[in-house]
Amino acid sequence: MSNQRYSPTGFGFLPPVVKNLLIINALFYVATLVLGNTMRIDLTDYLGLHYFASPHFATYQFVSYMFMHNPHDFSHILFNMFALWMFGSVLEQVWGPKKFLIYYMITGIGAALIQILVIYIQVRNVEMSLTPDLIDQVRETGFQVLQNNQNFGDPLMAKLNELYNSSTIGASGAVFGLLLAFGMLFPNSLIYLYFFIPIKAKWFVIIYGAIELFSGVYNTGSDVAHFAHLGGMIFGFFLIMYWKKYPNKHHNDYLQ
Fold first, then answer.
1. pTM higher than 0.85, yes or no?
2. pLDDT reading at 9 higher than 80
């Protein structure tokens, strides 16, 4: 492990992939606001990640969902883009643009796969307690019910409807992958919580991962995709370990 230290480059200069990712996320966010306010078009219905049994599911959503953020909560995109700048700038300096983009996309798509798997397990558990007729009713009319800002009176049907027709959005899965990578490459670098509490990167990653696991298991009522966050970290870990075992021609001392 090299003793060299890297730090964010500042907003005056950004490596190309991070810069373009920031621009694309900002453009999608503005488009979501404009289309939602002027034409009542909710882009998350088309670009957010839906469960594969939903009539609104499309395979491109495994990528497009990463560029969508909650238009009603500016902190969602703010914190994701801040983390992308903070950790992504360092990692792109180390890996180079191509390798960094591969890592970012794989962790983001991996997070989506884990999220779909978790939803599948939840759907199966709920469907076991419902009759086929009630399940068909949810599938056929559930989306329209939600569009009217309503849901089914039966709590199990309401839960199933949310699982079928809600969407996952945000770059958080890929961002958690970046956090994991930073912790593995620079384990003893200090991260400042709330800008003044120092903690080593390796402990920050471990603690944050444990919090996400606990929240995913016990805080099932939350609309935060905790397992997607973990999915980004899991795919990031195995990808880094793969690169370490099979280093390509662009030798990287930080993976030795």
1. yes
2. no
Q: Is residue 33 part of a domain?
A: yes
Say how many C-beta atoms besides its own lie within 10 A of residue 10's C-beta. Answer: 9
Let me know if residue 3 belongs to a domain: no
pLDDT tens, residue by residue, 123-177: 999 999 999 999 999 999 998 898 888 999 999 999 999 999 989 999 999 999 9
Question: Domain containing 104: what range?
Answer: 16-255
The amino acid at residue 89 is S
187 Cβ partners below 8 Å, 6+ apart?
A: 1, 200, 201, 202
Assess contact for 90 and 182: CB atoms under 8 A.
yes
Rounded CA gap, 163 and 140, in Å?
14
Q: What is the domain-level CATH number for residue 125?
A: 1.20.1540.10
Of 59-63, 85-89, 97-101, the one with minimum mean pLDDT is 85-89
Give the Cα separation of 30 and 204 in Å (integer): 32
- Structural domains of the chain, count: 1
Residue 1 lies in a domain: no
Alpha-carbon distances, residue 139 vs 58, 151, 162, 170, 246 (angstroms):
16, 13, 11, 25, 46
What is the rounded CA–CA span in Å between residue 110 and residue 87?
A: 19
58 confidence band (pLDDT: 50, 70, 90) = very high
* DSSP E strand boundaries for 1-93: 49-50
